[in-house]
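Fig. S4 source data, part A: sequence.
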Amino acid sequence: MTLARSRDPGDRERLLTGIIELCEAGQSAGAPTDPDIQRLLDSIFMTLVVEAERDIRQRLSERLADAPWAPSALINILALDEIEIARPIIARSQVLQDHDLIRLMVQATLEHQIEVARRPRLSASVVEAILARDEHAVLTALASNDTAELSPDSLRRLVGRAKDIVALRSPLARHPLLSSELAEQLYLWVGSALRDALTSRFHLDPETIALALDQTLRAAHRGDGPAQDGGIESDEDRAEMERSLVEKLDAAGQLRPGYLLRVLREGRLTLFVTALARLGRFESPQIRRAIDSNRPELLALACSAVGIDRSVFPTILEHVRQLNGGRPGGGDEGARRAGSAFGPFTPDIAGMAFRQAVGAV
């Protein structure tokens, strides 16, 4: 009671330490915690910690990081504290649940998010939240976390981002879950040292990879492809082959805005959708919603985001309407509105505007 009445920081810390030791002793003895006692402990800890100085909170964080009995509310508060205080809690506390970690991804700083991505044995749901945020440093931390629950699709998405995020390449090249198929894709983007490592690990043949890429590029430039291949059994097969073609063109640096007009002239609307989505880092369903709408300005924003010139867009719109049953609608008035998408702003701004606008369609 004397310690509780004192305002001295040292007395407050001694009181906290004494309560922790009592809880640890009860945990070691296997005594069940009465709900009323647990609520009382929660209240005591919260009151003391809110008023505690930084050094006390940091020592408390280290002490409680491995305590399974620690109050959930207190652990979540410490996890949102300064990063030096939050780090042991985020890294080790069993009290933090998946929904707590996902909330940190939304509410906390970039440093906190990186610590979440480094946490051992991350679940698939937290991995998905990290991928959705698409922060370069956080993705790199995730790629370096060999214990995270990465599905084949999650790993594929990380490898796909490695084209633009150099820091991802090294940890992915060494990741134990990397498949030979993804290794071939990653091979195109890494330097000589990592290429040697991938070749040795997966027994890759650089000449075979180069030959396959060269054949794909030649076929793309000739206009050959899935739409003309009689051996394709279904629309799903065709879509998969088109995705593969676009990925290889992109990996080789051959996927450019001019390619979009070429495939439209060849009557290959689905390939146009796939290529535009890849160029703008959009989702194909977003592009499909835009061209099926009555708002051609949505398609214009997507084209502006990938560097299509204002003067070229009317030709693209005409081809898309011819191949898509007159959609996107809006007539001449819609085409006029679409011109505003090529305003005095950067492609990044156009891309952000497209994602926001198409989400409401």
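Fig. S4 source data, part B ends here. Confidence is low (pLDDT under 50) at residues 223-234.
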